[in-house]
Amino acid sequence: MTTDDFAERTLKVGVVGLGWAGQQHLAAFSALDGVDVVALAGMEADVLAELADTFQVPHAFATWQELLELEGLDAVSIAVPTFLHAPIAVAALERGLHVLSEKPLARNGAEGAAMVAAARQAGRVLDVVFNHRRRGDVRKLKEIIDGGGLGRPYYAKASWLRRRGIPTLGSWFTNPDLSGGGPLADIGVHVLDYALHLLGEPKVISVSASAYAELGPQGRGGDVNYLAAASEHKFEVEDFASAFIRLEGGVTLVLEAGWASYRDPADLMDFRVYGTDGGAELRAAQSQSISDAGLHVFTDGDGQNADYVAEVPEDGNHRAVVEDFVAAIRSGSENWGRHDGSVALTRALVIDACYLSAREQREVEL
């Protein structure tokens, strides 16, 4: 396959996973010109048949192994529980396929490193779905910071907090062997990603973290169907975590990730940053109870406050991530090495260090 072939012909993609994330991938790929979703794989037979019919996908398989055997595939999209990311991605890369995987990269840094090594060995693209960095407010704040609007950032605080957001007890989310962790690995990795992205990808020097499992083991922190007595599975991950992260250049990042805590009922995702010439705060909430949602910038002009609310572009989310993935493939083999999953691996290694710090109650250097 030559670079010109990828640049000019229709890309044939397979999607593994039929849940919410997989359906986002499927819809995004199907909306692109020059891309055909030719195969789906998933265990839910009725959902598999329905999606294949709705999106006119010609091949439907019960297993990912069968999908990877299909001749003519160019790329595969992985939207399954985290413990399957590494085996599917490595197998796909070894077959010469480009890979787009849901976050986190893998259950841990070791698995993530194996994925990156496979991408480099195959000379193929490995991208990870960090869709929140494609939100309009994050993109606008990145533009402001990179343009010097805040001076030199030196302190940031980022969080994703829920009141009742524990996934179903007994699902793979609450089993560390399947998920790799609780909210720190699930939603905290999104916050870590866009925080480091906004700060310019500084090197992480050390972390000091704490993790708690206070509500989940009691059957609290989920919807009305979340009952500890309703499942034979234990709650084996944290439900809240925080980390103090030292970055190169003396910059500090404080991170919080919680599936459940006694707070405002709205999901809150925020980022606050202080710089030498200004500061900013973005807040995205799933409730009208937080009235100051948006991107607020705090700075001076002529010795007076010159604060403003920035106008932000439309959110990109999964659609933009899929577009970026396709563009990376079409950019040619000379550029594929820039998309080898190594950025996502840095996130996985920081998450590993946070869990180690929480277990041993000490600061961990990276």
Automatic annotation (TrEMBL):
InterPro entries (UniProt xref): Gfo/Idh/MocA-like_OxRdtase_N, Gfo/Idh/MocA_oxidrdct_glycsds, GFO_IDH_MocA-like_dom, NAD(P)-bd_dom_sf
Boundaries of every GFO/IDH/MocA-like oxidoreductase domain copy: 138-280
Superkingdom of origin organism: Bacteria
Transmembrane stretches, start-end: none
Annotated ranges, domain Gfo/Idh/MocA-like oxidoreductase N-terminal: 11-128
Keywords: NAD, Oxidoreductase
Keyword DNA-binding included in the entry's annotation: no
Protein's UniProt name: Gfo/Idh/MocA family oxidoreductase
Protein source organism: Arthrobacter silviterrae
Phylogenetic classification of the source organism: Bacteria, Bacillati, Actinomycetota, Actinomycetes, Micrococcales
